[in-house]
Amino acid sequence: MASTLAALTHRGPVSRGPDPTGGRRAVVTVTEEGRAVPEQRRSGSASRLARALHDCTPRARQAPHDVVPPLGRSAEAR
What we know:
Layout: H1 2-11, E1 14-18, E2 26-30, H2 32-54, H3 58-77
Antiparallel strand pairs: 1-2
């Protein structure tokens, strides 16, 4: 755990400081940079999907719209 926290602290998504109650504990806090990571990943995934869909035929782009709702209903019925 210590090496993981050290790497995250070094890269910036978390900060680490002493626990105000003392002892060997530390307080780990997610930084602004760390809070931005999930949105950046979602944005990157959406961009990759948009590029992939751009190269598809209209019929291929329609296929998920046709297939996903029945699959969802089937999963909910179980």
